[in-house]
Amino acid sequence: MQLDRTPPYSSLLLLKTLCGKRNLAAAAEVLGLSASSASRHLSEMRELFDDKLFTRFPGGLVPTRRALEIAAQSEPILDGYAALMRPARFNPAEMTREVRIGCADNAPFSLFPKFADCLLQQAPNITISFLPLAEDRFLQLSSGELDFVVSPVMAVPPGLRSIVIGRNEYVLAAGFGSPLAAESRTSPLSTERVLQESFADVCFRTQPGAPYTTLREIAFPDWREARSSLRTTNFLSAVTTLSSSRLIMVLPKKTADTLANAGLVAIVETQAKSVVQTPHLIWHHRTDQDLAMQWVRSVLLSSAQET
């Protein structure tokens, strides 16, 4: 195949985004394109590279090998173009963009509680969006749908950066004024005693398509056999049930301390000690030279170190 012209930046960006989103309408929305413009760009790319680039399946558009090759080879070009268009100086007060962070609902007040205040004081015109952690969180970073992800992780895919942002220990919590908490202050509860109670569990998938598992099973493996009476993907929705029931739940210690100080939960002392996890701040390498994102990262990390 011989190319008699070069593909435009917008077409390369669409192809790269489409490799992640697997849906033309969704990719167009991310890039602010109309459906007709996105379709035209894709048709031009197919003609230019003499390849269908994507095959339609029930689950969406699947990139061909050639499309994946083009996406990988074009990444330095896209990064270079983005760097060319960035201003050489950065003033937080002039920043007007949205900062999108995928994280658990408890993270903003337990891992980096001063982040939003500090950011808004210096950059009053930005918007901070804390968004739910999706199964395709890494694809969202690659496509630009998210700027950062905060999540415990052992390894990240190629193209992503990560840094430890904290240390999570876990504790058992009950409703404020719970007799179980009073009982535990006399003597920390044994595993046998804990297993007599029913749990409100925060659950999640360890990888896309995997069965849901509970934080309890990860943090306290000896409590795997406990009864789960309520399951949710959000910490705060489960916390509200504790005050009106006898349910107990596993919480990150920093979250539990914050809620206990507010009179919303009571910490139950146990003989068992939790597994320790290290949440990471994760971002795509294309933002390494983005002065605004460099600054946001530094503020977030500083806030996390203060907790």
From TrEMBL:
> Which controlled-vocabulary keywords does the entry list?
DNA-binding, Transcription, Transcription regulation
Q: Where is the HTH lysR-type domain?
A: 7-64
Output one GO MF annotation.
Answer: DNA-binding transcription factor activity
* Transcription regulation found in the keyword field: yes
> Of which family is this protein a member?
Belongs to the LysR transcriptional regulatory family.
Which protein are we looking at?
A: HTH lysR-type domain-containing protein
Q: Which organism is it from?
A: Sutterella wadsworthensis HGA0223
